[in-house]
Amino acid sequence: MILGHGHPAVLDAVQKAALDGFSFGAPTEREVELAEEILKLMPSMDMVRLVSSGTEAAMSTIRLARGATGRNKLIKFEGCYHGHADALLVKAGSGLATFGNPTSAGVPPEVVQHTLVLEYNNIEQLEQTFAQQGHDIACLMIEPICGNMNFVRATVPFMKRCRELCTEYGSLLVLDEVMTGFRVALGGAQSVYARQIPGFAPDMTVMGKVIGGGMPLAAFGAKRAVMEYLAPLGAVYQAGTLSGNPVATACGLATLAEISKPGFYEELSRKTRSLISGLSQAAAAEGVAFCGDSEGGMMGFYLLEQLPQNYGQVMKSSSDRFNVLFHGLLDRGVYLAPALYEAGFVSAAHTDEDIANTVTAAREVFKLLSK
């Protein structure tokens, strides 16, 4: 909810769309308009397919990557979450790029046997895996800023190497921008990395959340040469009765119109940085270990001295101390994500007063943590 709840322009668009009909089971004009707007803002794609959830988008992207490359294996990184498709519910085993082990009941080992799980930000392990299995890898899927480890950035050298190795071995680089897309910048996280890596662009992009404005809508896209493998043009099947829902697309279009206005991200970024800075100062004043980071309207923090770079380092953060902070803030009227592994989001609706009140409440709780 990057605009907050009940934004007038979004409400108006949704109410008007609802009067026209909830669902038609066929493409609509607004679906095309939303697709065109997404492609304008994320030029790494030529074509986009709308679906109803991030899980559906990620699942379809993997199927398309496999169909386009004729390969089976995929790389994901420990701590990254790409929805609850069976092939992605995997944890890492010991050693280098071991076959995945299911992390959910109901997922047979055979389903995840082609999923390779690597350590986030580990260039050496990445290079070894491609050297050993690169010609069998259909795609590498990554959260460019991992919001399911709270907030861990892919380092610029790591992201650059991901791009180089995918190009070298003919694998597809997939950025999962369900969280980061249109939240950390108007062009998503890929635009942030493109400013630091000349010519950088992913082969495929997964989107959700912001593009639906709070309604069930997601998308995936790529260059035309890849997307044309999708049915009805190609042999990779994907369909959904409610995909591109007319009410959801109206909500998404209205949201993108608002966030595209001049100065939107500058102001959103300022408020998010202000929150992280205020929390850092409050923790320091009470002698509590704390570190945080943000990009656009996305932020995260840890009760640690230094920002983690991977899942193993994230796990060093104390869940017991976080629980004290969470419940202490909740008692004071501030609701954080209820787990230390989840990123936080600042919306355009949050005010400087909201941020100041949050920092004041946090300092009271930091006093408890310092005892």
From TrEMBL:
Supply the EC number(s).
Answer: 5.4.3.8
**Protein's pathway:** Porphyrin-containing compound metabolism; protoporphyrin-IX biosynthesis; 5-aminolevulinate from L-glutamyl-tRNA(Glu): step 2/2
- Which InterPro entries does the entry link to? 4pyrrol_synth_GluAld_NH2Trfase, Aminotrans_3, PyrdxlP-dep_Trfase, PyrdxlP-dep_Trfase_major, PyrdxlP-dep_Trfase_small
Molecular-function annotations in GO: glutamate-1-semialdehyde 2,1-aminomutase activity; pyridoxal phosphate binding; transaminase activity
**Pfam families in the cross-refs:** Aminotran_3
Family to which the UniProt record says this protein belongs:
Belongs to the class-III pyridoxal-phosphate-dependent aminotransferase family. HemL subfamily.
- Protein name per Swiss-Prot or TrEMBL: glutamate-1-semialdehyde 2,1-aminomutase
Native source species: mine drainage metagenome
